[in-house]
Amino acid sequence: MTAPELTPDDVLAQERELELPSLSNDDALALGLRLLDLARQRSLPVLIEVRRGPQVLFRAALPGVLPDNDAWVAGKTRVVERLGHATYYHHLTNKAAGTDFNDRTGLPFARFRAHGGGFPLVVRGTGLVGVVVVSGLPQDEDHALVVEALRAHLSA
């Protein structure tokens, strides 16, 4: 049995739930390694990236990742940095409205990709400080993997 599809409000609730107390280099490394461990355990062909501002603090590509995944990670990152919300939120919002993200915003698909897997790293009391991105799976699974890792990271 598959889980019901999330709504945009569900994703916004996840964003609030998953605010971080901090995002040091060590925090970013721990989050990236947690994602890497989950992906390895499941033999997932994903590219993982954790950024604070413009700086990449963690990046890993597992077997099966394609060169195209680099463009997906970059495009998802730009959406989160520009609009401040998870890429899956934007996908679901546009899907519910029957619109296309890139047509609606005027942002080119080559640079902005509103497909699940990009998630804002928000530090409580500070705001958006970074982005975590997974690419390589169907977009709902990319998103779910990020959420799972963030939940585990926060409970550690």
UniProtKB/TrEMBL annotation:
Listed name of the protein: Uncharacterized protein (UPF0303 family)
InterPro entries documented for this protein: PduO/GlcC-like, PduO/GlcC-like_sf, YBR137W-like
Gene3D superfamilies per UniProt: Haem-degrading domain (3.30.450.150)
Source species, domain of life: Bacteria
